[in-house]
Amino acid sequence: MRLAVFASGQGTNLEAIAARLPVSLVFSDRAQARALTILESVPSRTFKPMDFTSREDYEEALAALVEEFAIDIVALAGYMRVVGRPLLQALPGRIVNIHPSLLPAFPGRDAITQAFEAKVAETGVTIHYVDEGIDTGPIIAQEKVPMQDSLDALENAIHSVEHRLYPEVLAQIMEENT
Ligand code: GRF
């Protein structure tokens, strides 16, 4: 199976995924994203909705891109946009996201801060299939992370779970589908 990773930012999950699995394409909607610079030998592409006349055209371009690279599965790793219908239809049930909370708790942005400020006893990491909602869609795996004394510590604890769990789950999905 050919895997693409979509990332808008740092790309630490991309790094963790690439350490375990072959990545065939990296896409970012932000030309300056560090994620685009991590894997020198992997093709990368960047464009953004503003480059197109409509969001629909952007989504169509993404669908064309995954077709061009014969991608079978997309892993969103800090991709900060909702996925639209053209891409969902191009890869039905083959787009996966990671979110730093125990969904359905704390969807959307700054989930780690939200959980920290809510002083919950535990939060965690969710990996789920993507649908048209924000951090909705069938859950594949979840792992709990206990609350920490500082936001920094909580962020570190969550990211280290992410970096172990995401490659593991993607490897399993790819194995089951080959
Ligand atoms: C991760 O915490 C992920 O759960 C969330 O965005 C963050 C991306 O971090 N969706 P990175 O770009 O992989 O370092």
Automatic annotation (TrEMBL):
<dbReference type="GO" id="GO:0005829">
    <property type="term" value="C:cytosol"/>
</dbReference>
<dbReference type="Pfam" id="PF00551">
    <property type="entry name" value="Formyl_trans_N"/>
</dbReference>
<dbReference type="InterPro" id="IPR036477">
    <property type="entry name" value="Formyl_transf_N_sf"/>
</dbReference>
<dbReference type="GO" id="GO:0004644">
    <property type="term" value="F:phosphoribosylglycinamide formyltransferase activity"/>
</dbReference>
<feature type="binding site">
    <location>
        <begin position="11"/>
        <end position="13"/>
    </location>
    <ligand>
        <name>N(1)-(5-phospho-beta-D-ribosyl)glycinamide</name>
    </ligand>
</feature>
<dbReference type="GO" id="GO:0006189">
    <property type="term" value="P:'de novo' IMP biosynthetic process"/>
</dbReference>
<dbReference type="InterPro" id="IPR004607">
    <property type="entry name" value="GART"/>
</dbReference>
<feature type="active site" description="Proton donor">
    <location>
        <position position="99"/>
    </location>
</feature>
<feature type="domain" description="Formyl transferase N-terminal">
    <location>
        <begin position="1"/>
        <end position="170"/>
    </location>
</feature>
<comment type="similarity">
    <text>Belongs to the GART family.</text>
</comment>
<comment type="pathway">
    <text>Purine metabolism; IMP biosynthesis via de novo pathway; N(2)-formyl-N(1)-(5-phospho-D-ribosyl)glycinamide from N(1)-(5-phospho-D-ribosyl)glycinamide (10-formyl THF route): step 1/1.</text>
</comment>
<keyword id="KW-0808">Transferase</keyword>
<feature type="binding site">
    <location>
        <position position="97"/>
    </location>
    <ligand>
        <name>(6R)-10-formyltetrahydrofolate</name>
    </ligand>
</feature>
<feature type="binding site">
    <location>
        <position position="55"/>
    </location>
    <ligand>
        <name>(6R)-10-formyltetrahydrofolate</name>
    </ligand>
</feature>
<dbReference type="InterPro" id="IPR002376">
    <property type="entry name" value="Formyl_transf_N"/>
</dbReference>
<protein>
    <recommendedName>
        <fullName>Phosphoribosylglycinamide formyltransferase</fullName>
        <ecNumber>2.1.2.2</ecNumber>
    </recommendedName>
</protein>
<feature type="site" description="Raises pKa of active site His">
    <location>
        <position position="135"/>
    </location>
</feature>
<comment type="function">
    <text>Catalyzes the transfer of a formyl group from 10-formyltetrahydrofolate to 5-phospho-ribosyl-glycinamide (GAR), producing 5-phospho-ribosyl-N-formylglycinamide (FGAR) and tetrahydrofolate.</text>
</comment>
<keyword id="KW-0658">Purine biosynthesis</keyword>
<dbReference type="InterPro" id="IPR001555">
    <property type="entry name" value="GART_AS"/>
</dbReference>
